[in-house]
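Reagents: none. Just compute today. Histidine kinase.
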Amino acid sequence: MGFSQAFMIVKEKSWNRFSLSAKMNSLIIVLFVPIIIVYTYSNNVTFDVVSKELQESNTKQLTFLSSQIDSRINQMMDFSLVFSKDPNVRKFNGLGIWEDRYDRMQTRFVIQEKMMLQSGLTDVWPSRYAVYSQQNKDVISNYDKPTGYDENYLIQNMSGKWTYSDDGTDSSRKSKAFYWFHSDSIAPQGTLTGSDLVVEASFSSENIQNMLDTYKKGGQGDPFFYHKGETPILNRTADQKLTAELIGYLDKHSPDSSTQHVISLGHKNYLVSSVKSSYLEWYLVDVVPLDRILGPISVSRNLFYVSMLLLFVVGISASILLYQNVQRPIKKLIKGLRRVQRGDYSVRLHSEEHNEFSFLFYRFNDMSHQIQDLIENVFNEKIRAREATLKQLQAQINPHFLYNCLGYIINMAQMKDEEAVVSMAYNLSAYYRYTTRMERDTATLNDEVKLLVNYLDIQKLRNGRIEYHIDIPQEMLSYSIPRLLLQPIVENSVIHGVGKSYSSGEIRISGEISGGCCRVYIDDDGPGLSPEQQEALNRKMREPLQEEMGCGLWNTNQRLIHQFGNHSALHFTESPLGGFRTEIVWEIPAQEGHSLPTNLRGDTAYANDHC
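Predicted 3D structure written out:
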């Protein structure tokens, strides 16, 4: 298995881990959201069911209490009707002409005894009765009446309905009671004919209080008896403040015969139920604090939400810790492997933690260092092999080039053109002397320019169309560059630029210093290359050498990078002359010398024989 295949396997496995944090967060959300939705729905259903059951239960209990009160009132009314037909009672309302005092006393005693027996049937609901004889202007009662027979009192209260009032002498709340008057007259109920027998049935507000106290012991509410405009009858342990607020609410919102409302008092919710009494036209009202009953459900719900929130925070925290301690190191490792895949073997990974990943990083750095050393050794061996090949080629005389130059000398000699013969021989001698010297791998830019002058003068003698211009700044000429760096590129311009067109012949060599780099431009006015071909050629300079590629330009580019660093390279663009431009860029080394002539042209300088 090759390195690329192994890297792809590691990449595929690591990619699955790369999104582990996002997957975990998504999984946490997917797990939590349905649970919260289901629990919220279940809690709402439970809350609604409990609320509904509470309302129904409260209504039933309140209705039952109201029916008990109405039942006792009905018993009192039935007793009053039956009691008014009692012979002794009717006898009490007679003239009693033939009766002596003893009979009268006996009659009164019997009537009082019957009323006392009826009143003492239950301790919870003591009742009071009184018999009025309009004819005798007398009254008999089973309780201590503060006043005797009062005609006006009867007339005021003969309404046929239960009334809530005092006994006519005191308006304090303690003496107030519910009263009902029944007459045995055949006249319409509520009217007196002057000889009627009137039975009074009454009970104190304490009877209602007794019922309310009994009701309160078996429930959660705070009941009271209410009638608008009257002082309400409260149970003996009633919350005075809450009741006062509720009375204010009921005075503004009169209840119906049987209603239920949820109202908010003092930032708390209360269930207010009311049932109207059939006889008294008062309302039996019960107020139940919903927060006290439904509070445990709300507390349980809030506790669940807090627990879910804590679990969510713990899950997210675990995901973050997993990301920091696992995913980030894996991501860093993947990034390092990608850089290694791109050929950057100088990458090193560092970890502040001392865990398994620090060991992996250490092994990765060791592996990367070994690979870098191996690659550099192999690369240097290849460079040396190519340099050896280059030196071998330099040592060999190009027969074709040499034959053409010698043929030119022979022709010029036959034509008696001594100047051309001398010029060709001098330039040819200087050119081959420089190219065959192998003592040093580098030379000054000035020596390389002299070699170009020799070479271009030779080509100019052979091809009269060639014109060249060399314009290099003086401060650049003293810089050292690899030997024979420029000549192969200029030769390409001569062969592939000028040589392929009969209308072209200009070659321009210029230089500049900018941005800490030296730049040399070699331009020709030949046919050049298309933008696609230029881009392909530039791309090949950045790729490893392949078998189908020529090694001349690539080797020149590698020699630049090897000597001056990664910011040095060859770059190919369109020339301002219309042809092809080769741009040579290298970083300026420290402490370079600056002292040589500039602005060289053809026939003005020659290669240094002593370089």
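Residues 1-18, 169-173, 593-611 have pLDDT under 50 and may be disordered.
Action item: order primers for follow-up constructs.
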